[in-house]
Fold these 3 entries.
Entry 1:
Amino acid sequence: MPNIPLVNVKVQFAQIQTEAEKQVLEILRAGAYILGQHNRAFETELAEYVGAKYTVPVKSGTDALLVALRAAGIQAGDEVITTPFTFIATAEAVRYLGATPVFVDIEPESYCIDVSQIEKKITPKTKAILPVHLFGHSVDVEAIETIAQEHNLLVIGDACQSIGTEYKGRPIGGLFTAECYSFYPTKNLGGCGEGGAVTTNDPEIADKVRILRAHGMRETYKHETIGYNMRLDEIQCCILRLKLQKLAAWTKRRQEIAKIYDAAFQDVAGLKTPPVKNYSNHIYHQYVLLADKREAVQKYLQANGVGTAVHYPLPLNLQAAFADLHLPAGSFPVAESVAKKIFSIPVYPELTDAEIAYVIEKVREGAQL
Ligand SMILES: *Cc1c(COP(=O)(O)O)cnc(C)c1O
């Protein structure tokens, strides 16, 4: 029986292994481990890839969110509008600053924030919107910008799953006040450890993030503010640079696989393929299906060697960590209903044609049980 995990970081590493081992060894021997040549080169290369003027690598996507929100001036008592259907880090970052996440339901056509419901959640305390480009699909950038400008709000994007995502043909990295990326090993661009970055076209935001990342320090031992230790090390920057060279081809392959899946599943009763709105491309960080009998399909796939997972089983309003917001079941009907049916299947670019065919066969069989 084949074994096809949901993600496979080992086959990805194999593609850069020779060069990575050589270069990492050089770093180890040269002794410049923090903020060296790989960091500088990665900043430039990443900025170009995501379409932003400035890039500041940090220790993780969570750190990127925290430091971008802080650079944008978010502080205790502020409200930040975001989605309940995301990884917890999105709303955690808001909490780290003593601000309050204010959730707005998602739309079924993209699983991203329902822009038409944002305005009714704006109060005098609202300072920013934090939309999430979920699974690799862009949010409606222009519609969100319009609301933000009308109400004098900043927009910080969570692009942790969306490196290479485009809105109306433009890469999203420079479209909002800032975007936050993650290089967690299983992300589309994953390091061999933790990593993240803030990207922006705003020189002031870039400067603030850069200072916050290193103890509020611009000149050695002169501290302008209380900052953090969030520098991304040279080994990670080196690995990420090598993978970045392959990312466009990997993304293309993900999109090809998604197309094959879409065609294979569209006629299956009780199964819904991932929606894509016409303003967005989709880079398929996850290929998500909705199944009426999700648990049975997942069980069948597991029994047949195909890895799956649920992103995400519980919207944030129903998490114990946010119990104090008092947002009981029923508060976000779309997010809650999607969370009950959604599951992800393997879509990593190294899947062979035979593996794709096998996944299709098993998903179709499982959905028809
Ligand atoms: C992965 C992820 C994060 C956090 O990134 P880390 O690098 O793991 O800290 C934040 N938001 C979303 C949507 C993510 O998928």
Entry 2:
Amino acid sequence: MNAKASYDEVLRLMKEHHHWFSESIPLIASENIPSAAVREALMSDFGNRYAEGWPGERVYAGCTYIDQVELICNELARKVFRSEFADCRATSGVVANLAIYAAFSRPGDYMIAASIPNGGHISHGKKENFGTAGLVHGLNIEYYPFSKEEMTIDVDGTKKKIQEMEHDGKSPKLGMFGGSLFLFPHPVKELSDFMHEHGIYINYDGAHVAGLIAGGEFQDPLKEGADSMTMSSHKTLWGPQGGIIVSLEKHAETIKKAVFPGNTSSHHLHHVAGKAIALAESLQFGKDYAKQVIKNARALAEGLVGFGFGVLGEKKGYTASHQIAVDVSKFGDGGTIEKDLEKANIILNRQLLPGDIKAGRHYMHPSGVRIGVPETTRLGMKESEMKEVAGFIKRVVVDKQDPHIVAKDVADFRKQFQQLHYAFDNTIGAYEYISLVTKRT
Ligand SMILES: *Cc1c(COP(=O)(O)O)cnc(C)c1O
């Protein structure tokens, strides 16, 4: 392809992508759709500038308006997360975690976190698995004992584990809560006093559940004793991709230095503007949204159970968050099912479930899929639509219908859900492609 052909092709492919998503059911638990105002922020000149440092103490000139926006962003983050301090500069959730590792531990220290099949994230992972904590910061990782029945961290087992680690000269410096497969609150309240007495700094990784915490519909980690909370700004929180850290005031200076200069140079100012807009939307609409998200996740779980799927966390009503974990091993493996569903315009991903590694399963072919409803909820879907979504999934996975036929019905179903909700403005379609160059067909 010559230069112009490549240029045209990239523009065409982006447009195709928008069209495809407008006809699909987006069920990736870590994704959401930002409002028109957030998209406007991403296109603004803020994205071409440098700031570095803290508002008012910048390394660069030209920050008059940028500083004001960032101060508003920090103020909104403090309000939304009921925190004493907020830093909105981390360029992603992983960078936010790295800043916490740098601020509160040294290479060679121990951290206790959830393993990946038990919901942990690769950024909490061991060096031998190329996990960020081990590979980049040199932390040694031990795992929390986990109850598959309760689908959360086991409190008594954790206390015992920490005592054993101390006995072996491996006293943990950091305790990491939160994760990516995250159905029920983690026991921060139950463990924070114990962990603090043992000299452990507590971070809560709210990457997935930040929007639910903002809405007051999940746990409140800082109130329950966490020292800080890291998050992504784009999962259940509906901002642009990025990271945010909130914490107790006493940790402010250490965290600020760990973010800059420790882990960022440019902190992507268009994303800071987008985060501010998303936080304002969250302050206004976040509670209603979070409530509906959780109702939708439960409705989808019940719908799937009705069609014979195994959904984890049955004992506790399947989920208290935006996502559900479905055991699909009766019908195939998670990897193959993910691909079949994608052909039917149903976008979700495969998932290692607790016990999969021990059973010799590989992350390409795990026993489960993870399904999230942040985006479908933002598109205005409610419980009755979740039953329809469960029906589309069943046609592909259980009835083994031709996915291309199901895709046509999915596209038809999506026609009524083209605007986004829970926003001050929704003048453009949720997936409308905005072209700034010559009209292309
Ligand atoms: C998604 C996720 C992250 C990473 O966030 P990015 O913004 O993609 O860097 C970190 N922690 C957890 C638990 C996550 O699920």
Entry 3:
Amino acid sequence: MSKSPNIFTELHSENQFVTEFSNGISLYLKREDLLHPEVSGNKFRKLKYNIARALEQKQKTLLTFGGAFSNHIAATAAAGELFGLKTIGIIRGEELGRNLQNTLAQNPTLKYANSCGMQFKFVSRADYREKETKAFEQRLKDEFGEFYLVPEGGTNELAVKGCQEILTENDRQFDFIAASVGTGGTLAGLINASGINQEILGFPALKGDFLSKEIEKYSFKENWTLKLDYHFGGYAKVNSELINFINNFKKKYKIQLDPIYTGKLVFGIFDLIKAGYFPSGSKILAIHTGGLQGIQGMNTFLKKKKLPLITF
Ligand SMILES: *Cc1c(COP(=O)(O)O)cnc(C)c1O
């Protein structure tokens, strides 16, 4: 397994020019995906100040929640290993715990997290829905002792603070900053770090109108919009149009996108450009948050569904 960057000192990514469209609109990608081969760049950023806080509190254990292919689970496991913190992942899906060896053999995300030393507790979907309650937390404390709790998807105030560092002074030259939205923590960080003349566009990777509220909770500016038409049916839902877009994009620009987040983001940007949404001459910076560790798992699913696979 490749070495992790020190997330306190080594989170710097470059903007890569992708292409210029006929109306002078140019697209750049901030290559946060290159921060680590397995871990989504934004997940490390979200953990940065949380780990600092856990270390300050002399905590020995990080505990968090996620689905079986969660980028956040992979990131927490990697960061815990890096800083000598024990990690516990509460994973949705009781059935996955019945035969752990079998699960690990079939699930690259959990296999990676396990290789970083993460301990799993598999819970039913009903229990998983209760995970934010005090009663559930107490049960976890009874079982595992003290821990530093990181919420599902990693979003809290400290996470947003970490995501504010995605943008630099140099990025003020862009008219639009675009990013995929899961919990909204990353977008809130981008909004807080943006200039007043910049417009921040969020592309939710899932259905639902609760995201605006989440983003408002953590951000203090109004120069942002959500583009709600690019979730492709919901979280982790894909179709062959999206897969083909990801594969063609890779062929043409030699950049790998993931099917859950960044594929939908870049598809949406191309679609909006076609629809004339951006004024001519606009400079767009899209954040490539990563997510590439999820491709293998998605391909297993696509194969079963007899859909085209993601070239990887
Ligand atoms: C988690 C994730 C997101 C979404 O980030 P939020 O802060 O939850 O909105 C976007 N892209 C990738 C690759 C991710 O792993």
